[in-house]
Structures are given as structure tokens and as C-alpha cells.
Design goal:
Layout: H1 3-26, H2 46-69, H3 79-101, H4 106-128
Helix pairs in contact: 1-2, 1-4, 3-4
Length: 129
């Protein structure tokens, strides 16, 4: 197994973990302090649950893309578009890392900055190769 495959599979595990977290938020888990700037304690209100549902869909898309990068699923994109999407996902993780790094919620920062740092490194490795 090469480095790109390992990095891709790490991103898949992270994406699916975040997907599960977002679905739990949609279902009413009392983890508001760990997301969206920690602005709501306990369960999220309806509008923020919609945001969590959108995030869950994005995480599934990311997992699917990186399963294709690892060779588990067929790649649906031609090579040039695949490269573009790899860099878009890298940018997405960098943006998430920045946003979570400046969150007012210490719980959110402590939870997601390490996760996003690993994800950023892995998406960069895939994008470079």
C-alpha cells in the first residue's frame, strides 16, 4: 500500500467520523459546544441542524472521493478534474482548520484542530501525487 492510498484511507475514516458526528447533531445530540463556534450549548436549534445535515452530505462526498483515490471505488472524474477536486478538498480542509483554530469554543478547538490538521496533511499528500 502506497502513501497516497494510506492518506486517502485516513481521510475516509475522518470523513465518516465527522459524518457520524453531524448525523448525531441532526438527531439532537447535546454537542453544540463542539460545533459552529460553540454558540449553542446542548442540542442545536433547527437552523443549525440543517447546517449539520449539509455538512454530513459533504463528508459523505469527501469519503466517496477519497475511496476512489484509494482505488476502492471507481474514479468518476477524468484525471484533470480529479486533480482539481483533490486541490479543492485540500482547500476545504485548510479552511476548516483555520475556522476551527479561531473558534471561541475551546471544546471545538481542542476536538477539531487535531482532526483537521491530520486531514489537511493527508489531503495535501493526495493532491501532490
Amino acid at each position: 500500500m502506497n502513501l497516497v492510498t494510506v492518506a486517502s484511507l485516513i481521510v475516509v475514516v475522518i470523513s465518516l467520523g465527522v459524518f457520524a458526528f453531524q448525523i448525531a447533531l441532526v438527531a439532537g445530540a447535546p454537542w453544540g459546544e463542539y460545533t459552529m463556534g460553540g454558540q449553542k450549548k446542548g442540542a442545536l436549534p433547527t437552523q443549525l441542524r440543517v447546517g449539520a445535515a449539509v455538512s454530513a452530505v459533504i463528508m459523505l462526498a469527501q469519503a466517496g472521493h477519497y475511496l476512489a483515490q484509494a482505488g476502492v471505488l471507481p474514479t468518476l472524474l477524468d484525471p484533470s478534474w480529479n486533480t482539481v477536486v483533490n486541490w479543492i478538498w485540500f482547500g476545504f480542509t485548510v479552511a476548516g482548520l483555520i475556522m476551527n483554530s479561531i473558534s471561541r469554543s475551546k471544546k471545538e478547538r481542542n476536538t477539531w484542530v487535531p482532526v483537521l490538521l491530520i486531514s489537511t496533511i493527508c489531503t495535501l499528500l493526495v493532491a501532490l501525487n
